[in-house]
Each structure stands twice: as structure tokens, then as C-alpha cells.
Amino acid sequence: MPDRIESESRKLLGRLRAAMAESSAGQARLDRITRLIAESMGCEVCSIYLFRDPETLELCATVGLQQAAVHKTRMRLGEGLVGRTARDRTVINTANAPAERGFRYMPETGEERFSSFAGVPIQRLGEALGVLVVQSRAARVFTPDEVYALEVVAMVLAEMTELGAFTGGEGGMSPRHQRPITFRGLSGQEGAVAGRVYLHEPRVVVTNPISDDPEKELTRLHESIDLLRVQVDQLLAGTNVGDGDETAVLEAYRMFANSRSWMRRMEDDIRSGLSAEAAVEKEQSHARARMGQASDAYLRDRLHDLDDLSNRLLRILTGQGRDTGAAMPENPVLVARNIGPGELLEYGKGVLKAVVLEEGSVGSHAAIVARAWAIPLVIRSDHITTEALNGDTILVDGDQGVVHLRPDDAVRKAFEDKVAMLARAQERYAGLRDLPAQGLCGTVVSLQMNAGLMADLPSLPTSGADGVGLFRTELQFLVRNQMPKRAELSAIYARVMDAAGGRRVAFRTLDIGSDKVLSYMKPQDEPNPAMGWRAIRLGLDKPGVLRMQVQALIRAASGRPLSVMFPFIANATEFRQARAEFDKAIEREHILGHPLPASVEVGAMLETPSLAFASHSFFREVDFLSVGGNDLKQFFFAADRENEKVRRRYDTLESSFLELLYGIVARCASAGTPLSFCGEDAGRPVEAVALAAMGFRTLSMRPASIGPVKSLIRRVDLLEARRVIEASRLRGDESVRPALTEWLAKQP
Ligand code: PEP
Ligand code: MG
User: Fold this and answer.
1) Alpha carbon of 680 to ligand 2 centroid (Å)
2) 469-487 as b/e, with b when 16 or more CB fall inside 10 Å?
């Protein structure tokens, strides 16, 4: 970078700092800053646009445009050149603005006289806060050095915006982080909760974006980078050398930590007047903006690495981090970009009231933990970590996937009404707890619960479940950093049986693979993991874990009845092989003289359409069958259950799917094989009534669903429901849902 530009930019930043230090109100500061920039760049116009709300930019200060337009001219994100700069978070630099795609003429500003336009995003950690614009009458493209200087200034403006330097004063912006915002994400777990924000990783605050001592800042940067490299080396040393993939990832990480070009860019930023923190943030913002645009997965991953390293570096430089000592508020709602199951479990059951994530997926392990704790979870809540501050009021509507941050009174009132209504419903359900799920026709349905963690078990007595219809054993494996030992598992399973107090618990052996990845197992690079090497396929090909687990189950039962089922069985052979492993384990225990279970039943999960068409002898062979509707439906309709674009496209109550289920019911009935349904649909009242009416006598669901399902079943005649379903199918309705819901609405 030429020395002249460097010192020009430093001079400008020095004057900006003086403007910042003045005790004037926000608007006066903004006005002064635009003047300083216009003067030092030698252009007629300098304007600052800031976001009024996430979709709208507002002209907040200008020299050169009509003053009357300030706080009047607004544009939507993506609208005009300014809106485009903010949306794409990239610089627009043109000698002929009116000819540029998307140019929007704003008569109130009188800007048609200006030909040149340079718009630079004001952004902090990849979050767009506004746009800095310079314009000049002469048609010229701004030089790279001029654009660079503008970017440095924009970086400082971003920090000042974050610190609230522009709020207050007549016509000034209202402070950031104070206005109410609603986030529309996705539901990970139902429920409604009001609480206060607790940030998993508090925001790093940079209070000194400008520096007048580059040498000192360079030394700080170099020292911090040295520390960062040591940290990365330690990470690398801590991984299992045999684990090639993990090492490869960390090697890439180390390469970045040693990257000369990253370092050089940050050094340039410092020489032009930024502090070390601001320099790190400036490059991080660049990387984030590129990350949003990169279509290549490899490049995105590398940019992610850089983002992660920048965060670490910022924490080193500012001495801030996870342990900032922020006190946990009452009714804490955890807000995070993403969180692993281990980290979430560290908070302990009963502490958090809800979890809101920017990323995450419905099937993620963190989601499974939140579900086990029965606390509302909202995922894909875009930008919440940049908007939320520790202690902010937050309302989480897990049913709709909606989050209200700093809500106004009307929203708060409506939410309180909803919470009160839910509480009344819960009371009603509690009153049904000891009553059977018996339809008006006299048919009794056994309602059982799905579980997977020790933390679930207290729900067994309170929910009124008849037993545990599905115990997902993989959760014990997922929440650990290493393979659990047999004795450890055996103790856990024994405690599960103790807690069930003699009620049946159907233990499903490890269903690993697909989205459930163990950190301590070599990741498989499969093109289609949901249809890949998962569940029983893995269990049979690498039988060591299956054998260990079955042995742990047998030992846990010790004199008590034992129910075991195998996941994802696609044909009779797989079941026979798995059953043979079980029988061998029993034999071994017998030889060792260990006590055996009082009785055993060995079943299969029916999760692939193929198994519905297995031979009659298979249906007689299995001790019981449990339909895993989540997987069965995804393979029946060929619609990925994790893909939001198609997940809800097909209805469980479509006649075609019911035809498949009827076939399963009929085969089980003729073979005399007990049948249950344990996918998510079992916990939805309308679906549950349909399943019960079709002949499923056992439904297994989340504990919180038992009340609503029981309440509806007790109000209807299941034989009549069956007739409604039959009539709808005979009419050729694609889905029986309209007919069934219409009939349900007429029930008293
Ligand atoms: C299912 O597929 O319906 C099921 C119960 O198993 P999981 O959701 O654990 O895949
Ligand atoms: Mg499944």
C-alpha cells in the first residue's frame, strides 16, 4: 500500500476518533463524520445509510444531497445501488451510476447530478449494519486505494454503530438492540416459554477500533497470533493420530493460522489506522460475506475455518470469551449459533427454559437433547445471535418456530394468553393421567412413550405412559466423546428398567449412521447416508458393538423381562442374523453362569417399505413389530425427512400410505404378531386417531403428546372413525385428512 494513502487513511481515522470522543449527540456525530470523509476524499457527496429495521435502510446523514431527505429517504434491502451494496455485502464502484443495473432515482435527494458512485457495506462480523456512500460529479471510478480507505472507515463506523455512538439527538436513530424483533425459524420442539436471553458465546465487544500507534497494535497482533498457533497445535496434538480425517481438517486449520496473506491483510489494516481487534474483524467480515456467496462446499468450509480462527483470535486479543462472567438470568433461554449435545448437557436438566439456534436441524443431537428435556427449541433463527443481548426479554413459541425478542406489550399479552391456555390444557391432561386411552366404542389403545436419556425417565409416571415403546439407545453413544463401556451401558439400562417399575421398555439397538454420527467413529463419506451404511447394516457388518450392547441389555435385565428390537430391518435375513447374535449372547451368558432375563421378546422396526412385503413366515417369526413411521414415510414418498423443502410435502394420511399401513396391520393380525407405531405421527392427535382406528393398538410418542392424544381418543368412537376413513378411501380421496378432520370437528 502506498505510504501516502496509508497516512491519509490514518489522518482521517485520527479525525474520526476526535469526532467520536466529542460529547455531541448521535446525529451531530454522523453529520460531522460525513463532512470529514467528503473533505478528505475530495468528493461532493458522502452519505451514511443505516438499517432502520432488518429490511429497510434509511439515509441518516449526508453532505452533498438535500438535507431535507435525511431520515426521509428509505429503501428496501436490495433496492437501488445502496440496497444492493447492503444485500450483497460487496462494494459497488462505478463511474456511471445511472447506467448501473438497479439504479433507483430518488428525486428528494437531487442525486441525478452525480455520476460516480462508490458504496461500501458497513458491516460487523458479517452482519450488514448500513452503507457508506461517496459520489462525485466527475465520471470516474474510485481507485482501489480509495475504496480500501473507505472500507477501513466503514469498519470503524460499524464498531461505532455497535457501541451506540449514533443514537440519540434530534432525529437520530433509535439505539440498536432495543427495538422489538420477531424471528421466524423452525420448530425443533414444541412449547411456549417467556424468559431472558443467555448467550452461549457472548458477543466480543471492541471498544477501540482506531489506533494511533500501529507498532503497538502490530505487536499485539503478532503476540496473539503466536498464542493462537500454540492453541491450534495443541488441538492437533490432542487428536488421535490414526484418525486421518480429523487430522486433515485440523491441518487445514493450522495452514490458515499460518497464512501469510491473512496476516498481511491484517497488518495493512493496522498500518492504515485500525486497532488489532478491528483489523481481525474487518477480515472476518470479508470472509463471512464471501462465505454467504460461495457455492463451492470446500471453499465454504475453509472460510468457516477462517471465521472460527478469527473468533479465537478476537477472544485472545480482547480477553473476552465464554467465561465473561455474565450472570445467568432467571428463566434463561439459551441463544447460540449452534451447540453440540455435550455442551448442551453441561447446562444440566431443568436449568434452561428454551433453546434458540441460528443453525441446527430438527434431527440434530442438540435437538434430541432439547426434546428429551421437553423444552421448546427453535432452530434456523437467522441473525438472532447478532441481535440478542444477555438479559433481553425473549418469548419462544416452539409450536410455530417463532421467537419474539424485546417484544412490545401487545405481543407479550398475546403470548401470555397462549401460555395460559397451554397450562390449562396441561391441567386437563393431568386429570386424565390415570384413565385409559379408551374410545367411546370401548377399544383401548396402549399409549407408550419414546425415550433415550436418563433425563426422560421422570416423565414415565407423570405422563401416564403404559411403558416405553421406543428407547433410542444411540443417545447414550452420541452424548459421549468415546465409546461407552459395556458395564457402563448395562448400569444405565438397569436404571431405565428400574425407573419403568415393571412396565415394558422396548430397547432399540444402536441406530447410528445417517444424520447420527459418532465423533469417535470414522466418518463415512457416503453419497446418501439416510440410505447408506446405518443402523442394523452397520451392526451386522461390524458386530462388535452390537454384541457388546446386547450383552449389556441381557445383564441389565438379570431376572426381569427383556424387550429388544433391531432398527431399520429391510428383509427377513437381516432380522435372522441379528436374532442369531442375540441368541448367541444369551447362550454365552448362560455358559458364564450369569442370570438370564425372565423372558425375552425380540422384535424389528419396520422402517423400509420392503419389510411390509416380507414373507408371512417373517411376520410369524418376529416377537413384535414396531413401525418407525418417520423413516417409513420418507422412503415411501422418497422425501427426505430432514429436508425442509420436501419434509411436509406428503401427508401421512394420504390414502396410498394408509394402504401400506393397512397391509401391515392385516399381516400382523393374521400372524398374531403384536404391532405398534412409534414415529412422530403417533403423537399427533388426528394421526393417532387414524392409526388407532386402523388397528394399531400400541402407539409410542413423546411424553408431552400422551395427554393430547389420550384426550382425543377418549372423545371418539374408533369404529366410526374407521368407517369415515374407509368411505374416504372408497371415494378415491387422495388424503383422508379432510374427511377425518371434518368428522372430528363434529364430535362433542
Ligand atoms: C422412525 O424412523 O420413525 C423412528 C422411530 O426412528 P428414528 O426417528 O429414531 O429414526
Ligand atoms: Mg428410524
Assistant:
1) 10
2) bbbbbbbbbbbeeeebeee
| The ligand 1 atom nearest the CA atom of 634 | 2
Q: Which CATH architecture has domain 214-318?
A: Orthogonal Bundle (1.10)
Ligand 2 centroid distance, CA of 451 (Å)? 14
- Ligand 1 neighbourhood includes 679 CB (under 6 angstroms): yes
Instruction: For the chain, give every residue range classified as CATH 3.20.20.60.
Output: 438-745
Check pocket membership of 642 for ligand 1, CB cut-off 6 A: no
Distance in angstroms (rounded) separating the CA atoms of residues 266 and 221: 9
Could you tell me if the CB of 607 is within 6 A of ligand 1? yes
Higher pLDDT, 716 or 426: 716
**Which class in CATH covers the domain with range 438-745?**
alpha beta
pLDDT average, residue stretch 728-733: 97
Q: Match domain 181-202+326-418 to its CATH number in 3.30.300.160, 1.10.1200.10, 3.50.30.10, 3.30.70.330.
A: 3.50.30.10
3-175 under CATH 3.40.50.2300, yes or no: no
List, by residue range, all CATH 3.50.30.10 domains of the chain: 181-202+326-418
Give Cα 701 distance to the centre of its chain. 23
| Residue 243: Cβ-neighbour burial (10 angstroms; 0-12, 13-18, 19+) | middle
Summarised one tens digit per residue, pLDDT across range 551-602 is: 999 999 999 999 999 999 999 999 999 999 999 999 999 999 999 999 999 9
* Cβ of 371 less than 6 Å from ligand 1: no
Ligand nearest to the CA of 642: 1
- The CA 178 to ligand 1 mean position distance, Å, reads 42
Single pTM value for the model: 0.69
Residues 6+ apart with CB under 8 A from 583: none
Please give the distance, rounded to the nearest whole angstrom, from the Cα atom of residue 570 to the centre of ligand 1. 14
